[in-house]
């Protein structure tokens, strides 16, 4: 089984305002039976990765969860350099996570990678309080036009 996960295309949102942030495109391609959709593409920001890691840690018991790149408030160098270092760190984090069978069994991970649901919506879905099951949410996203195909085609 092969799973490729790439963190790419960092974009600054709300640039120039006090609440600007960077989000990253997460592209997943797999033939693993563990995943509902075989390809997906979503955008996530750093604090969503922090939430995911916390949830994985809670549910993994004694299994160590990979580290995230640090949240540096004082960074020496250019912003672009910082964003690129963080992108690489986020990619390494996800590569390690998807190789771990215990972590791979967490439905929050699957919703994080294969749906556009927000963190509260992921929680509601996992706890059975959402309008869809985990599989339905992933399939709905995969079959909608907001999946990875549109993202690739919209490039100039």
UniProtKB/TrEMBL annotation:
UniProt-listed GO biological process terms: intracellular protein transport; vesicle organization
Keywords: Cytoplasm, Endosome, Lipid-binding, Membrane, Protein transport, Transport
Record-linked PROSITE patterns: PX
GO MF term list: phosphatidylinositol phosphate binding
Endpoints of the signal sequence: none
Main location as per UniProt: cytoplasm
Domain of life (superkingdom): Eukaryota
Subcellular location field: Cytoplasm; Endomembrane system; Endosome
Topology within the bilayer: Peripheral membrane protein
The UniProt record lists the keyword Lyase: no
The PX domain, residue ranges: 2-119
Xref: InterPro entries: PX_dom, PX_dom_sf, SNX10/11
UniProt keyword Iron-sulfur present: no
GO cellular component assignments: endosome
Family of the protein in this entry: Belongs to the sorting nexin family.
Identification of the protein by name: SNX11 protein
Gene behind this protein: Snx11
């Amino acid at each position: 089984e092969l799973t490729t996960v790439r963190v790419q295309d960092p974009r600054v949102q709300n640039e120039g305002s006090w609440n600007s942030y960077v989000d990253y495109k997460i592209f997943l391609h797999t033939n693993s039976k563990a995943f509902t959709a075989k390809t997906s593409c979503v955008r996530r920001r750093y604090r969503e990765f922090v939430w995911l890691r916390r949830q994985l840690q809670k549910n993994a018991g004694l299994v160590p969860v990979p580290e995230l790149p640090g949240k540096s408030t004082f960074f020496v160098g250019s912003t672009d350099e910082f964003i690129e270092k963080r992108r690489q760190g986020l990619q390494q984090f996800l590569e390690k996570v998807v190789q771990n069978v215990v972590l791979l069994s967490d439905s929050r991970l699957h919703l994080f990678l294969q749906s556009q649901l927000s963190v509260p919506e992921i929680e509601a879905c996992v706890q059975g309080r959402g309008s869809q099951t985990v599989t339905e949410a992933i399939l709905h996203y995969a079959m909608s036009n907001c999946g990875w195909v549109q993202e690739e085609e919209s490039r100039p």
